[in-house]
Design brief:
The chain is an alpha/beta fold and 417 residues long. The protein folds into four domains: 127 residues, P-loop containing nucleotide triphosphate hydrolases (Rossmann fold, 3-Layer(aba) Sandwich), CATH 3.40.50.300; 73 residues, Helicase, Ruva Protein, domain 3 (Orthogonal Bundle), CATH 1.10.8; 91 residues, Zinc Finger, Delta Prime, domain 3; 72 residues, post-AAA+ oligomerization domain-like (Orthogonal Bundle). The protein contains 19 helices and seven strands. Helix 6 links the parallel strand 3 and strand 4. The chain is elongated, with a radius of gyration of 28 Å.
């Protein structure tokens, strides 16, 4: 017989049992009052993983004792939505919980809109992403947004102590919680991972929980409780490095791994958008345009068709000439700001919208570049303390070699172009 995971066994059944989130669940809170009056609105629960979004949805429906439907945005589409909505029309006060609602595309979110507006269903959506960006405005305007906070160390320790003293299995084992740092650090503040890691450690047969024991068990069995988290970062790293290394084959393989794993299309597209500027930059400015168009396209389409668009962009970026000159330039400039503080803007570069400012020589001696030959007049654009500093060094590629030639002709030896 398969044992139910500890996190599931310890899932709260009432608002008072929920650890953390007192600003939402505490006495006198808007949500608690709504539940007491049995008039909860449609809502979006926004917060990091493992802080109680699904738990809160379950508690709400159990407390109200209303028909309850649950869908995952990863595996459900418009067809499943319509089936639930159709069933809900025959029931009173039905609640639909949608996990990871940010993964629904526009058409899927639009399918919800009418039912929410008419009150056919009361929607509870859970998301780790900012709903202002990921949930369409029409649907968002019909929902109350509740922000769930990351769990504090004291709250995580309380969860551990509650599990040891109250869980039907653990309370019989005389477990001694000697140290908690490793449990908390490895779980990353995710309550669900925290409890399931504790469960793994207890299954090792030891009853005295120390940091050393937790590390030993985690190194042996980490894939059992954190596989998705570990692969999430490792695979996106391999994907980026394959594109940076100009290998479209490696890039499309790791892309396929993410697609098959159900990775958020917007996350993949967002990383390619950053890559287009950070690793290609002015060596091929079209890369940024294509990556941006890709982000827009997959935001509208979603799986499965978006895999084609993602593949086109990834293979293009991998096959493009590379330059990190723009990335290096802003890094150097920020370092200069950190080292030198807020240097004064030279007078000739200042704006002079008033007579007093003109009398103070704001804008004096500024030369309008378009009046010069080739639309260029040499003058100083940096504060005296850092004048002649070259932040942007064009890369060695066809496009940026043209930039270098252009800049050398104008600035001569000033920036050593």
């Amino acid at each position: 017989m398969t044992m139910i995971p500890l996190a599931e066994r310890m899932r709260p059944n009432t608002l008072d049992e929920i650890v953390g989130q007192e600003h939402i669940t505490g006495a006198g809170s808007i949500l608690r009052k709504s539940m007491e009056n049995k008039t909860i609105p449609s809502m979006i629960l926004w917060g990091p993983p493992g802080v109680g979004k699904t738990t809160l949805a379950n508690v709400i429906t159990q407390t109200l004792q209303v028909p309850y439907f649950q869908l995952s945005a990863i595996s459900s589409g418009v067809k499943e939505l319509r089936e639930v909505i159709e069933q809900s029309t025959l029931l009173k006060g039905a609640v639909l919980f949608i996990d990871e609602i940010h993964r629904f595309n526009k058409s899927q979110q639009d399918a919800l809109l009418g039912a929410v507006e008419k009150g056919t269903i009361r929607l509870i959506g859970a998301t780790t992403e900012n709903p202002s960006f990921e949930v369409n405005s029409a649907l968002l305007s019909r929902c109350q947004v509740y922000v769930l906070k990351s769990l504090e160390k004291e709250q995580l320790v309380q969860m551990l102590q509650d599990a040891i003293s109250k869980d039907i299995v653990l309370k019989e084992k005389n477990i001694q919680l000697k140290e908690t740092e490793a449990l908390i650090n490895i779980s990353g503040g995710d309550g669900r991972k925290l409890l399931n890691l504790l469960d793994l450690v207890v299954q090792s047969g030891k009853t005295e929980i120390t940091d050393a024991l937790v590390m030993q068990v985690a190194q042996q069995k980490i894939a059992l409780y954190d596989k998705s988290g570990e692969q999430h970062y490792d695979i996106i790293s391999a994907f980026i490095k394959s594109m940076r290394g100009s290998d479209p084959n490696g890039a499309v393989y790791w892309l396929a791994r993410m697609i098959e794993g159900g990775e958020d299309v917007k996350f993949i597209a967002r990383r390619m958008l950053i890559f287009a500027s950070e690793d290609i930059g002015n060596a091929n400015p079209n890369a940024l345009l294509l990556a941006n168009a890709t982000f827009d396209a997959v935001s509208k389409i979603g799986y499965p068709e978006s895999r084609i668009i993602l593949s086109q962009c990834a293979t293009y970026l991998a096959s493009s000439s590379k330059s990190n000159a723009a990335y290096e330039a802003i890094a150097k400039a920020q370092k200069a700001v950190s080292q030198h503080g807020d240097l004064s803007v030279p007078l000739h570069l200042r704006n002079a919208p008033t007579k007093l400012m003109k009398q103070m020589d704001y804008g004096k001696d500024y030369q309008y570049s378009h009046l010069g030959e080739g639309n260029f007049i040499e003058q100083e654009y940096l504060p005296d303390a850092i004048k002649n500093t070259a932040f942007y060094i064009p890369g060695n590629n066809a496009r940026e070699n043209e930039f270098k030639k252009f800049l050398r002709e104008r600035w001569k030896g000033k920036y050593n172009y």
